[in-house]
Amino acid sequence: MTGQPLDPAALFKQQAAIQAATLVKDGMAVGLGTGSTATFVVAELGRRIREEGLRICAIPTSDATEAQAREEGIPLTSFGEHPDLDIAIDGADEIEPGTLNLVKGRGGALLREKIVAAAAKQLVIVADASKYVEHLGMLCPVPVEVVPFGWESAATRLARLGAHVAPRKHRDGSFYLTDEKNLIMDCVFGPIEDPDTLSQSIYGIVGVIEHGLFLHMATQTITAGPEGIKILEPARKQATQGAL
Ligand SMILES: O=C[C@H](O)[C@H](O)[C@H](O)COP(=O)(O)O
Question: For substrate, which residues are the binding ones (predicted)?
């Protein structure tokens, strides 16, 4: 990616993304995430393909990422060819450092992202260091993808779980539609003490397709901030790699 100099937050995202891209090796089937941080991963993989001859194939998690991957010359594949992926690299809206549980989906791509994450042997999360939270739900709503039919009923049931629920809309007031043509309910629960129970309760609502709690899925997080790059794994192993 070229052009304007990056602001500090974007620079941290890029640093985390470039670090994560080093995990991608020849012959891998790679899940490509969505969002401003994942964009840097896609750009770096494109660069490695062009400049280093890296040979990979990839499945993107959104129409936007697919368009970028095509521009970068990243060969795309399908779950028919690759039901299992070697690695997926994606961003996150919140990261709980002790568990690597996540909130994702601020960009609306949570359904495809979770399908790709579930198919991947490794799920590597890239972010700037501002995404750490003590408890999920502290910074962001939990997005819940619901089918359009009867969405008001699903929204009422989400509210009964304790959330303030707002259907996601565009500035002009029209409903935001996901790539799968569903609606998003942004659910503010406040700090979530027991995400596993909440996850099951949300799945129990008819009409819900998926939610943005990504629990026990990340195998590694790579974040960058003023103190350098930090790599966390679920077993609380951690390493700090020099100052930036
Ligand atoms: O639907 C969007 C995704 O879950 C993104 O990966 C997430 O919102 C993080 O995006 P960003 O890297 O732009 O903060």
Answer: 34-37, 90-93, 104-107, 131
